[in-house]
Amino acid sequence: MKKLMIYPFDKEVTDIARYRENLKNYQLINVVSPKGWGLNGKDSNKLDGGKETGMIISEEFEDALKKCDAVFFSDTKKQSLFDTYLNKINMANGQNKEIVMTKELYKKLSLQENINVDVNFINTTMIDFSEFVIREFKHKLYKIDTPILGVFGVGDYCNKFDIQLGLRSKFEKDGYKVSQLGTKQYSELFGIYNLPEFLFASDMSMENKILNFNHYIHNIEINEEPDIIILGIPGGIMPLSNEYTNYFGELALIMSKAVPIDIGILSIYYTKEIEIKTLNDIKQYCKYALQCDVDYFNLANIKYERESSSGEVYFTTISNRKVMEFISEKKDIYKAHNLNLFSILDENSFVGGYECIISDLTEGIVQI
């Protein structure tokens, strides 16, 4: 296994540190944040609010570089950092380190300067259309027989990928064969397929996206013969406001129309009060708009807040202790209404939700 470091390490990639034991071909040994962020010597949970991971954040890029074989350059939303990438990339290349990044980051960086180094892209896997679109079946949907578990969210930044990784780990430890498509551009670091690029194409109709995705999953089912398929659905299921439209839940609609989702998990933002009626209304929407029964709800440690005057949206990370206090107090009340509430960032809470899912899969609701 190659020894891996991550730069820049921020909240966007904390799931890699938390689930590092599930990485394929790499062993994560260092995570480095830029100097001035105040994270040096802190556990990575400082960024995601969950329990400690034992992965300590460093600010010393050069020292960490000496100990690793490969550097994963993560795509940050902080524009001011882009000027620092090239120097770090050249430094890593000069020491013959493997340089790993997504194609999207490479494209952004290439707009500023030429990158004259070899790069290992981690989101390039894509079955060629000719391999999974059968001409005589081109305008029809295949029947998918493998149980499908869908991970939805009410929006971005609500622990969807953590849930996907947690589920994969549990199913595999229990001996199930899993096929999986993930929501992160770096899903392949964990042996998970990236979502096919045609889902995001602006020159393809919604009808063709649905048909092609159905054929894509059918191809995976035939070739891999999994016990279960886990689908991560990016973005949100519906608009949250006029300003935060979640692209009107387009990808959730496309993917749920393409394949039957047998069990749905919805990740929701934290609020001090979550009305049972609100969750039941969301369940009804998922049932009729997405043809999916959602009985499982992850309560994220993220608060969605909207400035009333400007409509500006921002997200705040809170300690997962607050989430668990809420769940401990309320879970039995919600359970009585068939609303299973859990937290992916608390192992015991997640295990409880997972065991209920296994029960659904093995006791007749869905056959596995």
What is the CATH T-level topology of the largest domain? Rossmann fold
CATH architecture of the largest domain: 3-Layer(aba) Sandwich
Query: How far apart lie the N and C ends?
Result: 33 Å
SS class: alpha/beta
- The number of helical elements comes to 12
User: C-alpha Rg, in Å?
Assistant: 21 Å
The number of distinct β-strands equals 15
Low-confidence stretches: none
Q: What's the helix-strand series?
A: EHEHEHEHEHEHEHEEHEHEHEEEHEH
Strand content: 15-25%
Question: In which order are the strands of the major sheet placed?
Answer: 9-8-10-7-11-12-15
Query: Residue share in helices?
Result: 25-40%
Shape: globular
**Mean residue pLDDT:** 92
- Name of the CATH superfamily of the largest domain: P-loop containing nucleotide triphosphate hydrolases
Indicate the CATH class of the largest domain: Alpha Beta
Give a quick account of the main beta sheet: strands, pairing sense, barrel closure: 7 strands, parallel
Instruction: Give the number of domains.
Output: 2
Keywords:
368 residues, alpha/beta, Rossmann fold, 7-stranded parallel sheet, 6-stranded parallel sheet, 12 helices, 15 strands
Description:
It comes from Clostridium saccharoperbutylacetonicum N1-4(HMT). This is Peptide maturation system protein, TIGR04066 family. InterPro entries: CHP04066_peptide_maturation (IPR023823), P-loop_NTPase (IPR027417). The protein has helices at residues 14-18, 45-48, 61-67, 82-94, 103-110, 129-132, 160-173, 206-224, 250-258, 276-289, 320-335, 347-362, and strands at residues 2-7, 26-32, 57-58, 70-73, 98-101, 120-121, 148-153, 178-182, 193-194, 228-232, 263-268, 294-299, 302-306, 313-317, 340-342. The model has no long low-confidence stretch (mean pLDDT 92). Helix 1 (14-18) links the parallel strand 1 and strand 2 (26-32). Helix 8 (206-224) crosses helix 9 (250-258). It has a seven-stranded parallel beta sheet with strand order 9-8-10-7-11-12-15, sandwiched between helices. The longest helix is centred in the middle third of the chain and has 19 residues, at 206-224. With 368 residues, it is of the alpha/beta class. Helix content is 35%, strand content 18%. It contains twelve helices and 15 strands. It folds into two domains: 2-121, 3-Layer(aba) Sandwich (Rossmann fold); 129-362, Rossmann fold. It is globular and about 55 Å long.
